[in-house]
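May I ask for whichever protein you like with its backbone structure tokens?
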Amino acid sequence: MAFVDVVDAGGFSAASRRFDIPVSRLSRNVAVLERQLGVTLLSRNARRFHVTEVGRRIHEQGLSMRVLAQNALAIARESLDEPAGELSVQWPAAWSAGLVGRVANEFVSKFPRAELKLQFTTDGHPSVLDDSVDLLIQPSSKLLPDSSLVARKLAEYRYLLAASPALLETLPDLSTPQGLAGCPVIGCLANSPPYRWQLHHAEHGAVVVEVAPRFFTDNLTLARESALAGTGIVQLPATQCAAELRAGRLQVVLPGWEPPAVAINAIFHSRRVLTAAGRVFLDMLSQAFVAQSEATA
């Protein structure tokens, strides 16, 4: 397993950081394995890391062995009366950190035999689910490209265009999406490209508008704060700006025209048994999203 971890991570130092195992232990275990097998699995020096041909073949078998071992552990955990064992979850920091924090605290308080490892990713769309992670929470408006993964939809966020009243007073009346082309806007780096906005209207259909962002970010909280400061018009989930809209600190721009909704998916490996802890955590997250949507509807 140490050898598989090192190959997956692309080196001893990278594997140490990813799996929180000392480099010395990884190196020692791989060296023991090479002596036991009588073959060289890795060719390494200060500048170069290379997996030998026999190393690549053994790594392929090791991946299957690791999945079988993980499934065996999951069977043991299933026999317990409550969720137990380690659960590793990655979550994009830009999305509802407060919500997942509340769920995480409730989970560890309710199930003391479970160990939750919650990591926040820095980008809006993490794309790699390695074997050190059980669940990856990911916003997406597209289908999963990898058939080895399973996605469970937790929520769907409706988006709005919003801006501060002070900014709107300085702009000409916006009656069509094309008018956005001459307005200051805030670009979301998670969108590709951030200067091309897609909008949809129930009666008038869909349009694409070219905009010129004054400010770019992949953090929704920062985008909302910038909109409140009058930096520009912003695309935000309705749940992220509901309080500001009710208080009048933000106003909806072009009512009826909305960006595409974004689904929040929980992604996990299809080849690996999702433990009871994982299933319970997902159920708690799903219920929290439903409650949040109802509260801001």
The longest strand covers residues 149-157. The chain has a mean pLDDT of 84. The first helix runs from residue 2 to 9. The chain has nine helices and 14 strands.
